[in-house]
Amino acid sequence: MTTHFQLRRILLATLAASAMGAGAAYAEVKARVGHAMPESHPQAIAMNKFAELASTYTNGNVKVQAYHSAVLGSDEKQLQAVQAGTQDLYIGTLAPLSSRVKEVQVWDLPFMFRNSAEVYAVLDGASSKKIFEKIAPANLVGLTWTGMGFRNLSNSKHRVAKPEDVSGLKIRVMTNPVALDTWKTLGANATPMAFAEVFPALEIKALDGQENPLQHMWANKMQEVQKYITITNHVYTPSALVASKKFWDSLSPADKAGVQKAATEAGLLQRKLLDEGDSLAVENFKKAGVTVDSMPAAELARMQDKVKPVLAKFSPQIGDEFVKGFFAEIEQARKAQ
Asked: Residues 296, 187, 234, 206: is their CA dihedral positive or negative?
């Protein structure tokens, strides 16, 4: 006959087993985060920090391994893998999604921002949150927006001191219609190309130049294949840290909160490192023999005027109301400075 004491022991054992089973549902999760930048770039440093913080804030439940230098594939391939659930996390441009999420293209419109403070205000604002909402049907969970930097022009032919100097240069541009139209409007022979192909194309003179943030250029050794850099700050390129829905759904609520906290802090670190590093990048380029010039303000204003038709053309395609709200956030940030 089963005694009261035995029944109590059986009940306690059952409860303990149930608790262990519940814990097993959220067992240690191993995740991969990938991106295109080499280990010396602020984004790589930030992702290493993200991996460390994710483990700390989840009490060791989530172990993230960072993969740098596009070892998991190009931005486009990694985004596809995250959508499919075969890669857990990705940080970089969302430009490959622009055909299905038109709002992503707003970041490619030229000459919107005067400084990084305006950029960060918009990255933390309603428009950027709206883009994360828009990518959710693609099985992506937006964790945080961070920076990559203002884009500037480099080439191997000659100094660019006025808009006319761009004419005829064969410039690699991002594979999106806004960038393509912007540089065609300026008279360049604009050539869309995956970034992984850019260095060898510059090396064999199949391209004259490219445009990217300064620290991006330095980390990818543009000083070896480019002689001139012109500071234009024509477009700001942000980075988004996104998770696959499959990975996100495998986490407990507490672990989701921990990973989100780690993502936010790592994104802020990346912004800080970028803000601190541009002047050093200029010094490094000059020491390497690259001529670095800032385009004169009057000539930059002429360049801005030349590309106004690009804004007029693409605003309706992106969504007039969305673009209007985006510019309103910029103006609000500008007034607050």
From this structure: negative
